[in-house]
């Protein structure tokens, strides 16, 4: 995300490197490059110009502290203004009602139906009883798509086969949700290939019928300014509560994320960051600004780790480690937990400084763990539980069975043994003691 924008902003700030103070001349040259970077990121000219004018006013009027370099001061001002442009704080979702009705709108191909399932899964994980309502009777296979996704996340889907009137389906779905005691009903509505009068009339009628506690508009972030224009058109029709930017993982520009709040006055509430059902993040403007400016996003990284944290499994693992029983089965389970967190390159980019280091590195999530998983799968159940038995002949058989080399098998076993030792030291306190007494 935002890869191109981050790189160009970084280059623009270098103009101030070595300068003793911010002046009219050097700030003008720097902001010229910042404006160009924003325009290349598909931010509208009006927004880019107003943004740079505001930054210039604040930069010229700010006294630079002795300990702070002009370049650092400008980065701070740009960060604060970028955060304000995107809405300052994360916006919550109103789920009041019995049931609360969440209406989801958007054009065809925007990722609307997929978002419905992702959002349902995120609510389900919090203990919310949620039901999906298949009210897109316009697009062929839309109902089947929602049913497939619902089965994938184990969330019920309400549909009326053969019924072409979406309003009747929505009314029946809400009634069903109320009678069955569901907390939330997510209504997937019909879209079109483009904004037209028929779609707007239908979406207004659906909104009037459902009386949703929350209305979300889903837009494909990769369409740039077209996304902003469709967001504006839908907002004028139904005055929705917030925007969902889908396919953010495929957009290295970020113009839609920076501009939608300014144009519509409505906050971006969620971003889709991948194809997996777990790949949905709450939109935090300050964290996004951090990532754009290469500062990482450690808070989001920790939150992703906590989402995958299984307290019961963790207690069992600690008991095993304390007894020296950490096995390849446990090692494999830990790998799966990491994989669930999302794209490796995206996760690494949340670590300050890492985004620049891995910018040009192509990391395939599946390939990154493929050989490791193949090697572990080629072990017998006994070998996975008793790694100490892995002698030369067993390693040779495992290499052959996994389609890897003996060197790769030996490397994995060495990594595993290192993990064993580190976990054991952490459990008995010796690691903390060593770190405490460490002197660089």
Tell me the span between the first and last alpha carbons: 36 Å
Question: Quick one: overall form?
Answer: flat
Q: State the CATH architecture of the largest domain.
A: 3-Layer(aba) Sandwich
Just give the CATH class of the largest domain. Alpha Beta
Class computed from helices, strands and strand pairing: alpha/beta
Number of strands: 8
* Proportion of helical residues: 55-70%
The helix count comes to: 21
Tally of domains: 3
For the report, how would you describe the main beta sheet? 8 strands, mixed
Please identify which CATH superfamily of the largest domain we are dealing with: P-loop containing nucleotide triphosphate hydrolases
- Strand percentage, roughly? 5-15%
CATH fold type of the largest domain: Rossmann fold
- Would you list the SSEs in sequence order as H and E? HHHHEHEHEHEHEHEHEEHHHHHHHHHHH
Strand order of the largest sheet: 3-2-4-1-5-6-7-8
Poorly predicted parts: 430-436
Q: What is the alpha-carbon Rg in Å?
A: 26 Å
Mean pLDDT: 81
Fold and architecture overview:
With 440 residues, the chain is of the alpha/beta class. It has three domains: 3-86, SRP54, nucleotide-binding domain (Four Helix Bundle (Hemerythrin (Met), subunit A)); 100-295, Rossmann fold, CATH 3.40.50.300; 311-437, 434 Repressor (Amino-terminal Domain). It has helices at 3-13, 24-40, 45-60, 70-86, 112-125, 142-153, 166-179, 197-210, 225-238, 255-264, 285-292, 298-307, 311-322, 328-340, 344-348, 354-357, 365-377, 381-385, 392-402, 406-428, 430-437, and strands spanning 100-106, 130-134, 157-158, 184-188, 214-220, 242-246, 268-272, 280-282. It has an eight-stranded mixed β-sheet, sandwiched between helices. Helix 1 (3-13) runs antiparallel to helix 2, helix 7 runs parallel beside helix 8 (197-210) and helix 9 runs parallel beside helix 10 (255-264). The longest helix has 23 residues, at 406-428. The radius of gyration is 26 Å and the shape is flat. Mean pLDDT is 81; it is low at 430-436.
